[in-house]
């Protein structure tokens, strides 16, 4: 059946086309339609979930992630319009004759707009990654490394956006032949079609490496501080969903295969992973129980447990040995900023590990004393 020729007449001329070629065109465009249709549905669901779950809707990272999802939604919608337009019709794919299109300029505008919207999309992705990296190294210990990495990623983002602009301008100029067959496009470098996506993939892979580095450092710091460790399942969830490793793998596969829609899938997964990676970037690692979310709605610890009593007593006794820690209600209320200052001072060597162990032993003695008092009070009753 695939070798059978289809004979048809257009503009008074007869053409022959094998059915295999028709199947190829339909399969090619159907795959793109499926990818962009999935992108539209997933972006809408993610936007709704973020508005429901986020408590700080005015934070910069929330706004950046919302803009990224919005631009991805617009881009996918424009590409669906392009796939349903005259440039993907069988008559144009066979003849490449714009005279068969009723309004070629409008179809050209949709095509260029679908590509041009990629510029603000990539810009928002880069800004979100830079802000997350800035947050990962917010402690005093990594102050110099923070500014170095942020400077490198800012420079890389500027280069990426500039090359994307150059690539879109070149594409728009070369695509004028769609509605103006006599148009002569200018000369553009051959790297303009591949280099933008290559640099974009490199930035995502580098960001994934930094998020994995934070996971390793979190496990190490919790072990030193004597806090409850991340479980194997918790580490697996963070690694697979919050460190951008899956988008990185998909972007790498896009270079090693001939599939033209794999890079689109990689960019979609990157956009959908930004809210999860931002939760990991903003998470605190010095809580009594490990968490990878800065917006946790369910607390896994009990306020009356002996473990919380020991941790709070250790923190309060730790403040007696610090030189710069202020006395006040911050530590008693479990203020997150105060706990981060304690961790920073601990890593900077303000106190030795021996003094920290003495504080934990004192906390355990206080804990046992409280238990004995509670037993005596119950016996009196």
UniProtKB/TrEMBL annotation:
InterPro entries: GPCR_STE2 (IPR000366), STE2_TM1-TM2_sf (IPR027458). The chain crosses the membrane at residues 33-54, 61-83, 112-135, 147-172, 197-219, 231-255, 261-282. It holds the Pfam family STE2. The keyword Transport does not apply. Keywords: Membrane, Receptor, Transmembrane, Transmembrane helix. GO terms for molecular function: mating-type factor pheromone receptor activity. The keyword Transmembrane helix applies. GO terms for cellular component: G protein-coupled receptor homodimeric complex. One of its GO terms (biological process) is pheromone-dependent signal transduction involved in conjugation with cellular fusion. This is Pheromone alpha factor receptor.
């Amino acid at each position: 059946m695939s070798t059978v020729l289809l004979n048809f007449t257009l503009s008074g001329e007869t053409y022959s086309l094998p059915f295999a070629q028709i199947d190829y065109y339909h399969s090619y465009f159907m795959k793109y339609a499926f990818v962009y249709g999935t992108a539209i549905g997933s972006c809408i669901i993610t936007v709704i979930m973020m508005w429901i779950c986020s408590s700080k809707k005015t934070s910069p990272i929330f706004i950046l992630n919302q803009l990224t999802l919005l631009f991805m939604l617009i881009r996918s919608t424009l590409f669906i319009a392009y796939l349903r337009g005259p440039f993907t019709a069988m008559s144009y794919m066979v003849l490449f004759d714009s005279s068969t299109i009723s309004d070629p300029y409008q179809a050209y505008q949709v095509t260029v707009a679908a590509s041009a919207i990629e510029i603000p999309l990539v810009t928002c992705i880069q800004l979100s990654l830079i802000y997350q990296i800035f947050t990962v190294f917010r402690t005093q210990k990594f102050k110099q490394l923070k500014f170095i990495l942020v400077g490198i990623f800012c420079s890389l983002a500027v280069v990426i956006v500039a090359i994307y602009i150059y690539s879109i301008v070149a594409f728009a100029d070369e695509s004028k032949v769609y509605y103006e067959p006599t148009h002569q496009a200018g000369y553009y470098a051959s790297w303009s079609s591949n280099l933008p996506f290559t640099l974009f993939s490199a930035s995502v892979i580098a960001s994934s490496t930094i998020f994995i580095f934070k996971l390793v450092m979190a496990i190490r710091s919790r072990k030193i501080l004597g806090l409850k460790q991340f479980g194997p399942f918790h580490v697996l969830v963070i690694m697979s969903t919050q460190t951008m490793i899956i988008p990185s793998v998909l972007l790498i596969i896009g270079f090693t295969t001939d599939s033209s829609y794999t890079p689109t899938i990689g960019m979609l997964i990157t956009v959908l992973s930004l809210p999860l990676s931002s939760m990991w970037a903003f998470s605190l690692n010095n809580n009594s129980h490990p968490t990878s979310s800065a917006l946790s709605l369910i607390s896994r610890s009990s306020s009356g447990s002996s473990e919380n009593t020991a941790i709070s007593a250790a923190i309060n006794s730790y403040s007696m040995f610090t030189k710069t820690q202020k006395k006040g209600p911050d530590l008693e209320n479990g203020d997150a900023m105060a706990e981060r200052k304690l961790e920073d001072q601990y890593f900077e060597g303000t106190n030795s590990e021996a003094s920290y162990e003495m504080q934990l032993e004192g906390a355990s003695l206080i804990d046992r004393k409280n238990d004995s008092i509670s037993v005596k009070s119950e016996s009196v009753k």
